[in-house]
Structures are given as C-alpha cells and as structure tokens.
Amino acid sequence: MTASDEPAKKLNPARPIVVADEPRRLLPSNLGLSLQYASDDDLEKLRDAVLQEMMRRNLPQKADPVAPDKRRIGKVDSTAHDLTRSQVSLVRSSIEAGVKPSVLSKQFGISLAAIRAVLAQQ
Predict the structure, then answer these.
(1) For the whole prediction, is pTM greater than 0.85?
(2) Cα–Cα distance list, 76 to 65, 68, 71, 94, 110 (Å)
(3) What pLDDT, on the 0 to 100 scale, is given for residue 4?
(4) Do 70 and 76 touch, CB atoms closer than 8 A?
C-alpha cells in the first residue's frame, strides 16, 4: 500500500460521519426563508406530510391563524352596520369637529366599539 491509497480508505463516502454529541438536524435553521423558495407543489406535499405526521403522533392541529383576523373585521363591520346613516354621519362630523369618542358615546348612546368601527371605515 502506498501513502496515497491510505487516506482514500479512511474517507468512505458511503458512510456519513456521525458525531454523538451533535444533535441531528433535518430542517434548515431558517425554515421560513427556505420555504419562500419552494414551489407550490412542494409546499402542498410538505403540508400533507406534516398533517400525516401530526395525526400519527396524536398532536392537535391548530386553527388557521388567518381566521381570527377575519372574524374580528367582520364584527367591526357588523357593529358599524347597526348604526343608521345619520348616526354614522353624526359620528364622523363630530369627530372632525374635535369631539372625543367617549363624549359621543355618552351623549348619543352609541357604543365606543361602534364609533371606532365608523372611524375605521374612513
């Protein structure tokens, strides 16, 4: 054997080098950034695989994080729709004149939530 053959025997590419103290990492350190570059098909495959693994482990599936925001917006809009056009006009003109929302609420019996909803629609 020559000296050049000996390093080739020590480095066997078929066997990965495993360090016992180092934790095994399957995912990139910045997963969110990495997912930006994935195709739509890859994302769907990943979602299906994650859901299957969660079911296998009996982990609860969390609700869609977008849904609460939609519900909140719906409630604000429905509160504003409870007011008549004249009340909405009154709120807008009073606020433009410098009247505080809390004073409007007490004076005209309109909830602060409804006043905030009218102001959010502007």
Answers:
(1) no
(2) 18, 12, 9, 20, 14
(3) 53
(4) no
Decide if 114 contacts 82 (C-beta within 8 A).
Answer: yes
CA distance 91 to 86: 9
pLDDT bucket at 74, cuts 50 / 70 / 90: very low
Contacts of 76 (CB under 8 A, 6+ apart): 113, 116, 117, 120
User: What's the rounded mean pLDDT across residues 23-51?
Assistant: 83
Alpha helix ranges (H) inside the chain:
5-10, 31-35, 40-56, 67-81, 85-96, 101-108, 112-121
